[in-house]
Amino acid sequence: MKEKSTSKLTHAQSTPNVHRTSDPDGPATHEKQNKTIRIRKLLNGMLAEEAFARTRREGKRVNESDIIDEALEAYFGKKTN
After folding, report:
1. 51, 63 in Cβ contact below 8 A?
2. pLDDT averages per 10-residue partition of the chain, 81 residues
3. Within 10 Å of residue 35's Cβ, how many Cβ atoms?
4. 61 belongs to a structural domain
5. Is 41 within the bounds of a domain?
6. Which residue in 4, 28, 36, 58 could disulfide with 19, CB within 3.0 to 4.6 Å?
7. Does residue 81 fall inside a structural domain?
8. Cβ-based neighbours of 79, under 8 Å, separated by 6 or more
């Protein structure tokens, strides 16, 4: 009978395509990656409206991803770019 493995993968092992660097200003810091998430309809609508309003206000395309990136930087308390 085959034994069932009880070891759990660490986050780093379970995400092999993530480029890591110990230097916060290293080349992987600015690399973009795809992430599929589920959010509430209300937040999705607010995000789309904000992206549209900022695009018009700034005169250049502002993506929903840009807004999410900014929000996560603020949440984690550091600027990464």
Report:
1. yes
2. 56 48 58 93 98 98 96 85 59
3. 7
4. yes
5. yes
6. 28
7. yes
8. 73
Query: What's the rounded Cα separation, in Å, for the pair 70 and 26?
Result: 19
- The confidence score (pLDDT) of residue 54 equals 98
Full residue range of the structural domain in which residue 77 is found: 33-81
Cβ(25)–Cβ(13) below 8 Å = no
Q: Assess if residue 49 is contained within a domain.
A: yes
Do residues 65 and 81 lie in contact, with contact meaning Cβ atoms separated by under 8 Å?
no
pLDDT of residue 73: 92
Residue that has been written with the tokens 């900014």 in this structure = 70
Structure tokens at 66: 């840009």
DSSP track, 13-43: HH-TT----SSTTSGGGS----------HHH
Q: How many Å apart are CA 64 and CA 70, to the nearest integer?
A: 10
